[in-house]
Amino acid sequence: xxxxxxxxxxxxxxxxxxxxxxxxxxxxxxxxxxxxxxxxxxxxxxxxxxxxxxxxxxxxxxxxxxxxxxxxxxxxxxxxxxxxxxxxxxxxxxxxxxxxxxxxxxxxxxxxxxxxxxxxxxxxxxxxxxxxxxxxxxxxxxxxxxxxxxxxxxxxxxxxxxxxxxxxxxxxxxxxxxxxxxxxxxxxxxxxxxxxxxxxxxxxxxxxxxxxxxxxxxxxxxxxxxxxxxxxxxxxxxxxxxxxxxxxxxxxxxxxxxxxxxxxxxxxxxxxxxxxxxxxxxxxxxxxxxxxxxxxxxxxxxxxxxxxxxxxxxxxxxxxxxxxxxxxxxxxxxxxxxxxxxxxxxxxxxxxxxxxxxxxxxxxxxxxxxxxxxxxxxxxxxxxxxxxxxxxxxxxxxxxxxxxxxxxxxxxxxxxxxxxxxxxxxxxxxxxxxxxxxxxxxxxxxxxxxxxxxxxxxxxxxxxxxxxxxxxxxxxxxxxxxxxxxxxxxxxxxxxxxxxxxxxxxxxxxxxxxxxxxxxxxxxxxxxxxxxxxxxxxxxxxxxxxxxxxxxxxxxxxxxxxxxxxxxxxxxxxxxxxxxxxxxxxxxxxxxxxxxxxxxxxxxxxxxxxxxxxxxxxxxxxxxxxxxxxxxxxxxxxxxxxxxxxxxx
Length: 649
Ligand code: ATP
Ligand code: MG
Fold this sequence. Notes:
alpha/beta; GMP Synthetase, Chain A, domain 3; 8-stranded mixed β-sheet; 7-stranded mixed β-sheet; 30 strands; 33% helix; binds adenosine-5'-triphosphate
């Protein structure tokens, strides 16, 4: 692969803020390295030791059985995931708040651990009453209301496999996923709220169920009170079931490898895959990383803004924090409703100390401007996190200065639905950060940047991010398609896990994830990453967001096409277009000079906020899209982009 030398690689590391470091669990790179090396030398010893943070009904007899690419962790161990998240905390923390929930309309609820436990027990009994057995799959299609985590924990309690389908998906996307997982039961709500509007979930669920013969019952939470169609015998109100259910539901014991859930990847790259996670290894991964990466304390107020429809919500709003007995904030609605300071208002109201959000969200906050933030007291914050996409250095610095007041470390956490838990991230009291780099692998994770032959690339060269050893929270298979599991993840470089992400490693061993392998652009024999060009664009004062794709070019192989949105106060013009092209050429080199810059009001994103470059590539190439758009948040965006291209040409 070609070498290039992004300017970001020469940045000086930023040490952990001193006040944070003073109180942190791990306080220096040396301490990190000691732990890292211990895990590397004896992974089974290390993970066996970590696994003691779980509450076992029977301890594991064997730590790992590894028949590439199939791993079994903690064999012989028995536990109950819901017991680990709830029951075991009751002796000391029954009255500690487990969950603060805020509705979009401002209504609040709070649940202590005792109250959450009671609701979960009742709903678990309701599920048992409906004939749900361990190993059955239960589809969950719900808004961000407390019944969502309750449903998950109730499934886990009785050994049913939950399959959460994000509440913004269409009927087709929903029925595809229900059919693939062969779910018997569907849990939904009459509706949800988004920016003040009702999202008719039950209506969509009904349409999906028509195409899904496996569905026997639909349990419906009353959220909006709107009229909904009802099929007697099939449809049941959640509140009726809960009212009749006993709150006594002992947690049975399950094997460490009992399946916990299926979660379909967001589909930014095509047909969704049902990633299967199992009990003990997954829970350990979520719990261990929540402790270590957030440096979690007993008195933290922790807020992960992700929807539970995505893996981040599973691992870092439900399983990781609850296993750690944390106090969590959960918010139902949109960040800009009723105004663009809703998040800052929530931080101020609950005195949030740990805030974990997406890189895309950070860029949106930055584009909305600092006035929204200045109105609020954010002094309770002590740690910030990002996930989901590479965060460009300009957005990182803004996050650090404006939101974190330079006192909060930022953990840029790299991981995937498939990895179950964070894999590469700074440890906030120990790792000096470099804006834009997820820094170093966590203890227990062996990550490397390699060529397709498996050779480590030199610092500053682009390669493939791979993971060499199995880890407890890794996916066990693709549900119903083990061949695809082997092919997609374990055969590109035989015997190692292929992440599908392109990355670089710098001279300090820091990893810079550049984006998906498909997002690497080849211009005249040089490899450039979309992310690097986007980062250059966003460093221009007029640009809020940028997405860069390639279109085929007869001479150069591929030509660079940039889609940009502007910050408030800037207007698009031919002069600005020329200026942006020059800006990229000057920042990265003339090899990266864009062939086109197109202005847009919005970029097409998945509902988890990721830019769908696959669709932009189609727009750039053909002027429209024909591929799967079921994961797109707003279809109108594509029509506008295609129209804008024609207007301007
Ligand atoms: P699909 O696999 O269906 O295309 P997806 O990859 O977007 O969907 P996720 O599993 O939620 O679904 O996202 C994982 C991906 O997100 C990673 O492979 C990587 O490309 C990107 N990512 C996550 N965190 C980071 C990060 N901190 N830095 C850079 N990239 C990140
Ligand atoms: Mg992926």
